[in-house]
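User: I'm new to structure prediction. If I give you an amino acid sequence, what do you actually give back? Let's try with this one:
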Amino acid sequence: MKVNYECGPCFLRQSKDALDVITNDEDFKLDIISEVFKLLAKEYKRGANSNWTGSKVHRLIKELTGCEDPYKLQKKQSNEMALSFMDDVENILKKDDSLETCVKIAIVGNIIDFGAYGLDTDFESLIKESLKKDLKINQTDLLEEALNKHDDVLYLVDNAGEIVFDRILLWKIKSYGMNITLAVKEKPIVNDACMEDALSAGLDEYADIVSTGEDTVGVVYHEFSDDFREIFDDADFIISKGLGNFEGLTELDLKDKDVFYLACAKCPVSANLIGINLGDMFLLKSDYLKL
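Assistant: Good question. You get back a string of structure tokens that encode the predicted 3D arrangement of the chain. For your 291 residues, that looks like this:
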């Protein structure tokens, strides 16, 4: 996705949140945010890639502060919070463990996102409310066709915490006899899931976990490692979680792949692109979008 005028305030809010968890030194934060302004003055322009621009902002903050994982504590807490909902999830599954239900549960987890929301967001209330909502766009029937058509799937995860909910969908996908390759970030970026997070959530029980080889916001194809680029290019079937991956993949030509996007619309630009409202949850196949 290309940057929109609304991306600017979001980049700055994310910068502030990151700095607030790194340090209490107001002068130091002022110095860093000044460097963020300089970066955005150069990079934030019509036609720029939003994921790549955001990645540069977060990499700059990590470099200048010397803090490689600003959200380390928040990611751990996110996984713990997500695990606290598993009794509720199990009760839902006892009544209905259909593919559609498992998809919805996985998408509800996408709400846990410090990149899209502020650090003071009441995620527990948002999750409880969303578990009662229906999907605004629901192409589960097409996803099931793909699950019956293919033997292998590449599953792009998004955030820590969210990946605990992904476990339910991964369990369901395995019931179709699928081989699952699950991709995580090589190094921390905001609260995106890395190998440590995925292993702590037990995702290795359902999938072979690989690294994308980079630390970018969502998908930035030219930053993939050679090994992961080969995995990605060879994949005929991709399940993509979260808005960051959605925004990155929609920049690529994926006409020869079955690609499905699962997310909650937390960004007004993405919501407008899809034609839904903020807060709506969706599962759609890539050819649904006429981009």
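You can read the tokens as a compact description of the fold. Here is one thing that stands out. The mean pLDDT is 92.
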